[in-house]
Amino acid sequence: MADNKRGRDKQAHDVERRQQEREIATELERADELEPPVEAEELADFEAELEELTFPATGIEVVAAIGDREIESDEGSYSIEDLVPETDKETFDSPAAVRVQVQRPTVAAAMKRVVEASKTLPNTDFSWTQRKAYEKTFQELKTIDADDDDEGIQVISDWIVERIRDKDTLPTSRAVRREAAKFCRANGYQVRNDEWLGI
Questions:
Q1: Running DSSP on this structure, what letter comes out for residue 14?
Q2: Residues 137-156: pLDDT tens digits?
């Protein structure tokens, strides 16, 4: 990488993003959230396979190495290539970071679609905070819409991808939350103003 302002800014941004990924991984390990739909022993076996990769690893490298590996969850079977974006902009600092990505398969599959669609945007930085806000919205939809085959997650990920294609820009996290709240209310789910989707 060139030793100029752009190169130094990119390195600083990459370091910050990896630190944030580590913090998220640590949070998820000790959080009092509902059990993820993938069994812990399934994830342990999966992490053992990742040990062969050199980290940090890009999404492309992870998919190339173990993309056909299947993970069983409460909702079915998913391959790693269904859950990890095939892009060099997606970087995983450790096997635990990949584990965080795949332990909630429905959310991971939706985020994969969004991240891969955003690759088509010129000069667009899909910031860490915006990604985490999108993921939080999908997680909230998963909680609200758990019995309806995750229709809300599918609808909102479709909406984001359409906005990327039609407007050549990423919708703001607030716009995504607003659209998710509209979906919930239109389908009879109550969304209070003090909740994440309550815009």
A1: H
A2: 999 998 886 556 788 999 99
